[in-house]
């Protein structure tokens, strides 16, 4: 049947028809001759396009200045005198190239989003069909991979205007899932031909700055986390933690915000997104952290763990460095050689200096296993070896004794100070009482000397006593005695004058 179709197409071009014919025009002429009677239109068009490949046939577009496209179609290569250089020698050259990327900008009307389609342009249609295997051509569909292990089947369809599209209900959902809007850009990357496999990417997956721009928009108008694409949630998790994480922990974070998605969807997004990198078995991080290739010192196995500026360096995956740290017991050796317990940050810094590794990169890993039975965490957050526990207990006991002695000194000092203050206070109280008694005695003596007996004078003397009690602190006891002495002398002088 293949040879019959090819011969019939050649016969169509050998007749006195137009030099350029579209696949639809070729179909109409072949059907008029009785060909394709039992074949539906879509399959017939696909069969024609599959056979329209160089070097026998040649695709050409004729345009006129200011008038656009006059004719777009196929012809026999010899009709246009196509040279060997212009015409490929085999049909594989007409295939889509693996790794080729097709950029699509969503129209301003958003028709593609509403209908779940991706338009195919010009000769791309023929290249698509040429790149399919026989089964795909018969089914007229292809698999599009939106993550490493997940794909969806999409149809290749032709509309009433003879325009071809990739179409699927899944594609419509994919647009909505990834918040694709009119004028946004998506990419199609050719993964393989015969069978044809295509990877699809969003603008964010191709451009990490798109996520940052999205975050700025979100700060202005927060969106519910249930509306966030999976890739956004993963990126946000890494940005907040700044740590390499196992895929189970990443999936847990995503499922907390998107409970309807599956763990496999999370794993697939990690694998498909070029801005996430795998570090060892099941662990992931951001590519911008520089985790894929890390410079380290080439140390002889078993050499002392110390800085050596004369060692050569090499660039290796970060996983190699983590394996080296674990296999050579770096953490154990560093704690054993340390005179004091160390924090995780101090351990990280020492390993970074020994291996010439960037400390920031090493700090993002989980090379230190706090659950290791050989290590013990102290109350201040530092770590030491369990075998050094007796020394640690002795050090803690010594610190306790020093603290206790220091506290006892502080208590003694405070006690002495309090005793001094209380003694001074008691003296002041005793002095006030003494001055009050003296004043009272002076008042009684003065009243008795002047023979004040009536109640009025008693009341006045009481008021006078209270007056003197209040004034003593201001004029002093000595000054008060002096005043009373002057009063007494005046009183005696007055009595002498009366006797004369």
Summarize it.
By secondary structure, the chain is α+β, with helices and mostly antiparallel strands. Helix content is 50%, strand content 16%. It has five domains: 2-93, Arc Repressor Mutant, subunit A, CATH 1.10.10; 95-201, DNA-binding pseudobarrel domain (At1g16640 B3 domain), CATH 2.40.330; 222-289, Orthogonal Bundle (Arc Repressor Mutant, subunit A), CATH 1.10.10.10; 294-369, no CATH class; 413-499, no CATH class.
Give an overview of the whole structure.
The protein is an alpha+beta fold and 500 residues long. The chain folds into 5 domains: 2-93, Arc Repressor Mutant, subunit A, CATH 1.10.10; 95-201, DNA-binding pseudobarrel domain (At1g16640 B3 domain, Beta Barrel), CATH 2.40.330.10; 222-289, Arc Repressor Mutant, subunit A (Orthogonal Bundle); 294-369, no CATH class; 413-499, no CATH class. It is 50% helix and 16% strand. It has helices at residues 2-14, 23-32, 41-51, 111-115, 124-131, 134-139, 169-177, 203-206, 208-220, 230-241, 247-257, 263-272, 318-327, 330-337, 344-355, 359-363, 389-449, 455-475, 477-499, and strands spanning 57-64, 68-76, 101-105, 117-119, 141-145, 151-158, 164-167, 185-192, 197-201, 245-246, 276-278, 283-286, 294-297, 313-316, 375-377, 383-385. The strands form 5 sheets. A 7-stranded mixed sheet has the order 3-8-9-5-6-7-4. Strand 5 and strand 6 (151-158) form a beta hairpin. Helix 3 crosses helix 5, helix 11 packs across helix 12 and helix 18 packs across helix 19 (477-499).
CATH homology group of the largest domain: DNA-binding pseudobarrel domain
The tally of beta strands, per DSSP, is 16
Q: Indicate the CATH architecture of the largest domain.
A: Beta Barrel
State the end-to-end CA separation: 172 Å
Oligomer: single chain
The overall average pLDDT, rounded, is: 77
């Amino acid at each position: 049947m293949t040879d019959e179709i090819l011969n019939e197409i050649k016969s169509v071009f050998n007749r006195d028809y137009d030099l350029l014919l579209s696949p639809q025009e070729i179909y109409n002429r072949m059907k008029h001759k009785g060909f394709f009677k039992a074949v539906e239109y879509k399959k017939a068009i696909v069969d024609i396009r599959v056979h329209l490949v160089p070097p026998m046939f040649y695709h050409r577009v004729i345009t006129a200045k200011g008038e656009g496209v006059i004719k777009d179609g196929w012809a026999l290569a010899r009709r246009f005198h196509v040279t060997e250089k212009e015409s490929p020698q085999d049909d594989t050259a007409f295939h889509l190239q693996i790794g080729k990327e097709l950029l699509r900008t969503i129209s301003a009307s958003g028709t593609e989003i509403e209908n779940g389609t991706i338009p195919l342009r010009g000769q791309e249609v023929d290249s698509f069909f040429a790149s399919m295997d026989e089964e795909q051509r018969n089914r007229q569909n292809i698999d599009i991979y939106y993550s490493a292990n997940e794909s969806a089947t999409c149809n290749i369809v032709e509309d009433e205007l003879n325009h071809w599209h990739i179409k699927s209900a899944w594609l419509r959902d994919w647009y909505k899932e990834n918040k694709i809007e009119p004028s946004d850009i998506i990419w199609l990357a050719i993964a393989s031909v015969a069978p044809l496999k295509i990877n699809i990417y969003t603008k964010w997956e191709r451009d990490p700055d798109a996520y940052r721009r999205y975050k700025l928009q979100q700060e202005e108008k927060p969106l519910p986390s249930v509306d966030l694409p999976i890739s956004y949630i993963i990126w946000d998790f890494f940005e907040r933690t700044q740590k390499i994480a196992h895929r189970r922990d990443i999936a847990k974070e995503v499922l907390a915000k998107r409970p309807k998605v599956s763990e496999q969807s999370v794993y697939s997004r990690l694998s498909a997104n070029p801005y996430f990198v795998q570090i060892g078995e099941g662990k992931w991080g951001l590519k911008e952290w520089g985790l894929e290739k890390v410079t380290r010192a080439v140390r002889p196995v078993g050499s002392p763990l110390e800085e050596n500026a004369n060692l050569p360096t090499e660039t290796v995956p970060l996983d190699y460095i983590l394996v080296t740290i674990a296999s050579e017991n770096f953490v154990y050796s560093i704690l054993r050689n340390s005179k004091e317990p160390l924090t995780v940050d101090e351990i990280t810094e020492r390993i970074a200096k020994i291996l010439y590794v960037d400390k920031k990169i090493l700090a993002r890993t989980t090379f230190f296993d706090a659950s290791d039975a050989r290590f013990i965490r102290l109350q201040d957050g530092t770590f030491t070896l369990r075998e050094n526990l007796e020394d640690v207990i002795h050090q803690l006991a010594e610190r306790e004794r020093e603290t206790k002695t220091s506290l006892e000194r502080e208590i003694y000092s405070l006690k002495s100070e309090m005793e001094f203050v209380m003694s001074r206070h008691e003296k002041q109280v005793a002095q006030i009482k003494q001055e009050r008694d003296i004043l009272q005695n002076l008042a009684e003596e003065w009243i008795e000397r002047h023979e004040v007996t009536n109640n009025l004078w008693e009341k006045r003397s009481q008021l006078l006593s209270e007056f003197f009690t209040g004034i003593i602190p201001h004029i002093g006891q000595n000054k008060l005695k002096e005043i009373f002495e002057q009063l007494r002398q005046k009183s005696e002088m007055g009595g002498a004058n009366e006797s004369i």
